[in-house]
Design brief:
The protein is of the alpha+beta class and 280 residues long. The protein is built from eleven helices and eight strands. Strands 1-7-2-5-8 form a five-stranded antiparallel sheet. A three-stranded antiparallel sheet has the order 4-3-6, with no helix packed on it. InterPro entries: Homeodomain-like_sf (IPR009057), HTH_AraC (IPR018060), HTH_AraC-typ_CS (IPR018062), Tscrpt_reg_AraC-type_HTH (IPR020449).
Length: 280
Amino acid sequence: MKYFDRTRSDFSPYGFTCEQWQPARMPRPDRHNEIEINLLQSGSLSYLLGGHRIDIGAERLSVFWAAIPHQIVAFEDTTPYYVVTLPLSDFLLAGLDTDFVSRVLHGELIIDPAKDKTDAFRLQQWEQDLRNDDAVGEQAARLEVRARLLRVARKTLGRSRLASPSPLLSRADQLACYIARNYQQPLTSSSIASANGLHPNYAMNLFRRTFGTTILQFVTEHRISHAQRLLATADDAVLTIAMDAGFQSLSRFNEAFKAACGCSPREYRKAHRAAMTKDP
């Protein structure tokens, strides 16, 4: 059973997970660069999300971008509930309606307007697939999470439409989307700004004002999340993982990973593998 760790570093990535959490009031907000999906099986939770208090009821899927400061401030009659964390890059590549994507990136918490009686079974299956460290099961879970989000978007927006490059996304959203799709490539603030038709100083100021972090820190968060997933699930060398995630040197990767996760990549892999081999 998971609990919020008040000592975790801000923006430390969770990666792709599906776990049951014990409801508790959080002493401080959390921030991490994934899309978070919650499903309560009973009771209710109250979040402070980006300065607004929002109530979530049972048996309705809720979706929000966890880079927005979020904090549970109250709960009632709540049993352990499901939490899914999906890397932002997966979310942006899921073919979702651009209106839906924009609303989530602007800090809106989306609640499925209708209950789906299959959700509890579905999330239980995702939890099992990921707990078993099964690559095929993980791939299936990723595809099923995307499919479930497509249905939420369709019901929320009242129409079905695949996403395509669109001016509906704000300038800041376009920068975030570009980074999420290209973080494995060599990137600088200037190259990101240029690719989106913006002056570097304007892009950097806009990004910080909108998201509360720098462009390069946002790139690093994506790369750390990517590396964290591979360290936990693949047997590739740490150097190979660092290069695959977009880092240009092993030393830079080790430095960034320890700053974000509080341990070295090798320590993270060892701890995760040890946890995965424990009896449930």
